[in-house]
Design goal:
By secondary structure, this protein is an alpha+beta fold. It has 19 helices and 8 strands. The strands form 2 sheets. The protein has a 6-stranded mixed beta sheet. The chain has a two-stranded antiparallel ribbon with strand order 7-8. Strand 1 and strand 2 form a beta hairpin. Helix 15 crosses helix 16. The longest helix has 26 residues. The chain is globular and about 75 Å long. It starts with a helix and ends with a helix.
Amino acid sequence: MPAYNVLFFGIAFFIFGIFLASIHAGWVILAVIIFSAITSAALFFWRREKKYLVFLFLSPVVFGGAFYAEAFDMNLRTTAAVACGAGSTFGGKVVDVETSDYSSTKAVIDLDCGGKILITLRRYVSVSVGDVLTLKGTVERPPSGGYADYLAKEKIIGTSNFPEIVSVSAGGGLRHFLFGVREEVVDTFKRTLPEKEGAFMSGLLLGYRGGFSEDFAAAMQSSGTTHLVALSGYNISLVVIGAMAAFSLFLPRVWAFGITSFAIFLFVVMTGAEASVVRAAIMGFLVLFATESGRFFDSRNVIVLAAFFMLIANPKLLVFDVGFELSFAAFLGIVYLKPSFNESFMNWKDNLSSTFAAQAAVLPIIAAHFGSISPVSLVSNVLVLIFIPATMAFGFAEALLGFVSRTAALGAAFLAFPFLKFETATIEFFGGLHATVQLPFSSWLTAAYYGCLIALIVWRKKRVAQRN
């Protein structure tokens, strides 16, 4: 068996072990290892091919993945026990801030005693990334279950609601600087564009959703376009494909690849280089790399390597981070399903096939996490994505010019406005249809659905092989 296949199956078994541990299927882990070992040994003695011996020796790797996930979880619980018993006064550095339009501000604090907690503050309280806080209150461990797992994916081990702020020291460092850059860019969009269009541009480029009205947020949800302003690899994958296609119209593909890659880097910087953004940018770059290389083994091994390193950093992402799941599912859809759709019935429109492939791949995940889908989302996404590369290009220009001259930024905003107006009007139109369909989630139905997609990919691969 070639080395790249050994690498692929070894990592795949390790990830499968993490999955089984995450859903607490201990007996399944043992059953999988025994079944894999017996089957591999039987096939080796029957067929006398060395590749089956490789599977035999790789079978215990499933246990390795499960053990790693359990060890990570145990370390997180130990840290939580120490931090949550720290007393009524505690302190730490602000590493993330999320401001809502309602009554509170949420911030993530990296505690001096170890671990991260999520604190809820009054809306009028202003804190920034990098600030050092001393607080008085109670740190509580979230009850086991969904909410605790949701927090654990960000390595957050406790919460504190409305603690008293004893002291605040202005922060510094790279994250503080990047957070300030993001706030300055958001302010530029607010001052140079109408409220709705400025909020959409902030969401599109920075994932900032603090300026959305309730009506527009509901329209995005109903039209299936919320992902455009969510910092996940799902939307970035679609945007990257569109940007690459747009730049390739008037530049050599090497130059288009370089410019699009640099745009991804700028995106990370502008959004503050948060962990979720870095993950999303990695996925966006992988989509770009895979579509340019067009080689099956390159794409396949790049996918599992990216997943492996992300899960080594935090195995909780696999089951409890919907953004991680959507990112990889959309990526797999674009890499493997898109050629099948082009082969079948969509070879006339690259943007449509990319969107359709990504949405087909994430459908069961959306059904599992959100319970409904928007049947008009394919049309709304295709129409909006047509102009997203141009919108982002003018948005980047406006953001950069805003640091030099507000008048120059106003010129870029003037060029971006027609595209933004079309996009927001499209979202509101399809959102106004209120076309959502409730989808019950079933593990068996999901398995059958993905089985059909895999069959389509295999069918397409055989057709290509027959031609060659």
